[in-house]
Fold this protein.
Amino acid sequence: MNARTRRPRPWLMLAAAVLAQASTTIVSSTPAFLIPHFHDAVGLSLAEAGLIAAAPNLGLVLSLVAWGAATDRWGERRILLIGLAATVLAVGLSELATGFVWLGLSFILSGALSACTNAASGRLIVGWFPPERRGLAMGIRQTCQPLGTAVAALVVPALASGGSIVPAVAFGGALCAVSLVGCALLVVDPARAPRAAGGTAARSENPYRGSGLLPRIHAVSVLLVVPQFALSTFGLVWFMAGFGWSALAAGAVVSAAQLLGAFCRIAVGWWSDRVASRLGPLRLVAVAGIAAMLLTAGFGWLGWAWPAAIAYVLASCISVSDNGLAFTAVAELAGPRWAGRALGIQNTGQFLTAAIVPPVFGALIGLLGYPVAWAIGAAAPLLATPLVPRDLVPNSGTEPRHAGNPRSTRRESLN
């Protein structure tokens, strides 16, 4: 039975998408958890180590829109299979790289290829799940990032403790190989609507024409990932250097924060289905992020290790909770011919910010210390809160509908 005739099983496809996205997340987040190795064993400054940690995110930025456009053109399954296979090869090159420059370039390449899963898995889920279950499904799918980061936080430092980064880097590549098999067995593309002759109608569907709603959501998401990547990148080294904790204890806190963040994404997605709104919960998450970052900064300033750890976990959970809401709203607004590109643009802005955050916050921490850096991070959700749109009408390809009211529409395929 081939992929076209295989019976579609949306929940199994969701599981395959989660594994694929989590695997590529481990690939892109591995360098962040090698910062202690680069800083202590290799002798790099925090800013230099942060630059290496940001390299995969730079690769993601350079390729996300292209992967999204390719998914719009050729379908989710094909892109997942090609991209995951290429990622495995790129990770192999990273294992062979030596020196600061070559290692950075290899991480950029592996990040660029790992971006295949972002738009493709998102389109797959939005395409197979109806609006009244889409928030929950997308929330589950969006657990990939915190789950992948949590696994990396636990596994990567331990694998690198022997003095070599090769086992730590190889771990993500091995998981990508496993997820490649899962996608080959389970993923079926949603039905695709026929293309308009001459492309005139497709051009008229451009959701960026005559509306600033999508750019506002993109801007909100860019601001809200600042605390997320600041905390996930420097949390491990903060507890080790700032409070004298062991790598195991510090990794356990960071891992717990990411695991709880994954459950928060599911809960927030379910909440958005129940209240029939993506953007109302998004605004509340932004407000909560301000308070959580300031609380983390305050306990860090006082030097209270366990309260600081609890505040860190809370801030980390809140900082990852918004992503599924914005991702779903973007896909619903963009419509069937633009979802891949719009999701690519959405993630490009986020990962461009993620590429900038590590070196910037590394420099801030070096100059001002961790508590002040966390307090500065609270400015990002503060700026994001008034930018969250209140009303928008997605380009669903069938009939206008309100993105904040997914229950008011009938089931439809994205494609």
